[in-house]
Amino acid sequence: MRLFVSLFFLFHITIGFSQSETKPVVDSLFREDQFYVSIAYNFVQKAPDNFNQYSFSTGLSAGFLRDFPISENRHWSIAPGVGYSYNDLKQNIDLSAVTENSDFELVKSRIILHYVDLPLEIRWRNATPDSHKFWRIHAGFMASYLINGKFKYEGGLTGSENINDILNKFQYATYLTFGFNTWNAYIHYGLNPYFDKDKTAAENNMTTLKIGLMFYIL
Hints:
Layout: H1 2-21, E1 35-45, E2 51-53, E3 58-65, E4 68-69, E5 76-94, E6 106-125, E7 135-154, E8 160-162, E9 170-180, E10 183-190, E11 207-217
């Protein structure tokens, strides 16, 4: 009986040691950064003379990118994806600059734009299978298709109007994301104007530079 008890305890001690020495299983075929969320400020570029921004012109986006490693250590990859973006451009317009009335007249308004985004990235990161804390640099090109665009009056005037007919249906941009772990800088530069030059009374080449933060998940 004593021998049985001794063997029983010896067996459990051996199992305990073997479990404590077992290393966690890691995935050597890991993928990174497949879901993203960003928040940015829209700096309007090439704005008309009668235009200036006020408050915070928000840029939000979210989506999914499929990570395809192209190097043996999986530090390099490409990632096509799909997502959604929202832009709220807040502006003051001096109407006296575009009308025959010489009296200063300031109107506050917002241009609200919704897009389906199709990003394509080339990526570098020094990730390892057992750590999600690493440096990354992602450079990409994005094509965006307009879902809806509205012009809303603020302040004394109220109301809104649909402006889909005078907007370019597609937007193109390049962007760069870089950082460590959770916090990543995000820079997005629009390559073509928001407005269709053939459908506006005055030439409007307005586009935006977005600067903000990008967060990746999984």
